[in-house]
């Protein structure tokens, strides 16, 4: 059962003093209002005992809205996150808001420190791609009445608003597409991660190969623990160790880039020797010959729903009465890399 939040009214009632007096003490105005040191000590002691946290909403009403939203992602230089950031910035500006960008590098310690820094600066809301072990920090933001909207991934343990894409079904359809092209030995090159979107992409692949009675061939690449050359070597080793593969599905586009290098170095022809599909379409896929089949995430739609959702939460004064749970569809773009010639 959720613990009841303590309000200024509760403090005043418990100590038999006025709400105004409590407010002056909390806002650092006790001395100018000539409130006794003894009374200040009583209030501070009670706050410490009860674990009272001042409401961000109340602070905003007193101090005025900052009109600033934090956009906290894994890596702001990543094409996907950078594209969303650019679209969000336009929509925020149109609505009178400014955006602060930052990268967590998927490091929980860095994420927590950044959130702590921005909290004291009285920002109005957070759009976050959460790192692992961030559940308690997100819960604290919600308890303190900040508007919080997760995207790209979410946390099942936290009742928080989010905007995501349909990861499992998208991965299933991409794998099924390869099956329909006659592929019978489909490999998945995947990020080894506890992130929910990665778990679902793996689940989608597994559901498809199980449906069609095919064997699993999965390479787990540790999350950003490898340099590009190490990723290249790992993928090359996987392809050499599984010469029967006639198709490969990359769960991220940055793995696909290294995979394409590996395929070229091994002298394999796309799609004759190996069909290729990648999650998260990229502009450079259209420059590669043959063009690479990709799963497009709806960037404009994601940005629209993030900004609309954040404005809705801010309109609710950040108290999270409105819980937004948006799961957006993706689009598979079949191109030359996965259209097989003849039967395997």
TrEMBL record:
GO terms for molecular function: DNA-binding transcription factor activity; transcription cis-regulatory region binding. Gene3D superfamilies: 3.40.50.2300, lambda repressor-like DNA-binding domains. InterPro entries: HTH_LacI, LacI/GalR-like_sensor, Lambda_DNA-bd_dom_sf, Peripla_BP_I. Residues 6-63 form the HTH lacI-type domain. CDD domains: HTH_LacI (cd01392). It holds the Pfam family LacI. PANTHER family: HTH-TYPE TRANSCRIPTIONAL REGULATOR GALS, LACI-RELATED TRANSCRIPTIONAL REPRESSOR. SMART domains: HTH_LACI. It comes from the Bacteria. Keywords: DNA-binding, Transcription, Transcription regulation. This is Transcriptional regulator.
């Amino acid at each position: 059962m959720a613990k009841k939040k303590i309000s200024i009214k509760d403090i005043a009632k418990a100590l038999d003093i006025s709400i105004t007096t409590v407010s002056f003490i909390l806002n650092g105005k006790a001395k100018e209002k000539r409130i006794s040191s003894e009374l200040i000590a009583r209030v501070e002691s009670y706050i410490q005992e009860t674990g009272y946290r001042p409401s961000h909403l109340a602070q905003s009403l007193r101090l005025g809205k900052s009109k600033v939203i934090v956009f906290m992602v894994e890596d702001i230089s990543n094409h996907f996150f950078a594209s969303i950031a650019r679209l969000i910035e336009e929509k925020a500006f149109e609505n009178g808001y400014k955006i602060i960008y930052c990268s967590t590098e998927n490091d929980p310690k860095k994420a927590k420190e950044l959130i702590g820094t921005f909290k004291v600066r009285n920002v109005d809301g957070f759009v976050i791609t959460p790192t692992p072990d961030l559940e308690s920090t997100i819960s604290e933001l919600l308890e303190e009445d900040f508007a919080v909207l997760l995207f790209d991934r979410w946390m099942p343990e936290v009742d928080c608003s989010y905007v995501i894409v349909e990861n499992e079904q998208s991965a299933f359809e991409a794998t099924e597409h390869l099956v329909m092209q006659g592929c019978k030995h489909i490999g998945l090159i995947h990020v080894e991660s506890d992130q929910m979107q990665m778990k679902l992409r793996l689940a989608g692949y597994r559901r498809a190969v199980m449906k069609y009675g095919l064997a699993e061939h999965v390479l787990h690449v540790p999350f950003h623990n490898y340099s590009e050359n190490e990723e290249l070597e790992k993928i090359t080793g996987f392809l050499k160790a599984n010469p029967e593969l006639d198709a490969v599905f990359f769960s991220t586009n940055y793995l696909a880039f290294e995979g394409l290098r590996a395929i070229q170095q091994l002298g394999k022809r796309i799609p004759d020797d190996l069909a290729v599909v990648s999650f998260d379409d990229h502009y450079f896929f259209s420059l590669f010959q043959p063009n690479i089949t990709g799963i497009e995430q709806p960037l404009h739609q994601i940005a629209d729903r993030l900004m609309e959702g954040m404005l809705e939460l801010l309109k609710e004064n950040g108290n999270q009465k409105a819980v937004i749970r948006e799961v957006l569809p993706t689009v598979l773009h079949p191109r030359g890399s996965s259209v097989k010639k003849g039967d395997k």
